[in-house]
Amino acid sequence: MKLWYTEKHSKDARFSIKVERQLFSQQSEYQKIDVLESQEFGRFLTLDGLMMLTEKDEFIYHDMLVHVAMATHLDGIRDVLVIGGGDGGTVRELTRYASIQHIDLVEIDPMVVEVCREFLPQTACKLDDPRVRIVYEDGLRFVRGKEDAYDLILVDSTDPFGPGEGLFTREFYGNCYKALREDGILVNQQESPYYEKYAEATRRSYLRIHSLFPVSRVYQAHIPTYPSGHWLFGFASKRYDPVEDFGPEAAAAWNALGLYTRYYNTRLHRGCFALPTYVNELLEE
Ligand code: SAM
């Protein structure tokens, strides 16, 4: 009997992966956690049935969440806050920078970290880096009251339904603004412009961020296992523009680090901010 994992991307469109084995399945205090194994995508994590990451294509998402901001402000990022990201992939990419001194990973669900440590070492492999402090708390609450504490905040959350909902609010983004230092950067996974449910979330969160930060842009990547594959990221900053301030010197400085990244590169860095017309129209005020 063939087993298939299927995610509804809209009421009339679904995405399925043939499953070889179910490795884990349990309800945590916050969500249903499943780890499945497939020929096509390797092992993959779902939360409440929604695709979070696969061994085969997680490099795209984690490259793009981390390296665009790091390359933009390479020598100015010491203290980083990751909200969500319990699978560890974002932390793994951050620990590749010797210049980063401290990483707070604020994950609401301890079970996600435990499960990924056991079944997805590919992403969880750097959670024990001495610079990493894991805090099991709601990111919305954690960031309240923080001031001038971080150079970079990465919001690696689930979608704006369930525990992730609060991480798409104006209150949360306003608290992130206060928690960032004077040249701080906020990057968030910004959903997708294609299917209506995700496009509405994209527009809502972008306009909230845009109303708070002097610099706010959106960039894109192709992530095969996410709804429509067309995925967006938000880049907000108190000072640096990720395109205007990313000249040949900045690109050369990042390239000099010798970090091999299978998706991100310094040419794509500028190109990913060139959005299709329909996406620009979606983001217009
Ligand atoms: N790459 C995935 C995506 O774009 O959907 C996100 C991966 S990561 C597994 C998402 C994490 O956010 C989950 O582990 C979830 O428990 C966590 N999360 C959801 N809401 C949260 C909140 N309010 N505070 C902290 N972590 C939260």
Write a structural description.
It is a single chain. By secondary structure, this protein is an alpha/beta fold. The chain is built from ten helices and 13 strands. The strands form three sheets. A seven-stranded mixed sheet has the order 9-8-7-10-11-13-12, with helices on both faces. Strands 3-4-5-6 form a four-stranded antiparallel sheet, covered by helices on one side. Strands 1-2 form a two-stranded antiparallel sheet. The longest helix has 15 residues, at 58-72. It is globular. The mean pLDDT is 97. The structure holds S-adenosylmethionine. Residues 47, 52-53, 61, 83-87, 106-109, 112, 138-140, 156-158, 163-164, 166-167, 189 line the site of S-adenosylmethionine.
Brief synopsis:
This protein is 31% helix and 32% strand.
Characterize the largest beta sheet: strand count, sense, and whether it forms a barrel. Answer: 7 strands, mixed
* Rg of Cα set: 18 Å
In this entry the ligands are:
S-adenosylmethionine
The overall pLDDT, averaged over residues, is 97
Q: What brief labels describe this structure?
A:
single chain; 285 residues; alpha/beta; four-stranded antiparallel sheet; 10 helices; 13 strands; 31% helix; globular
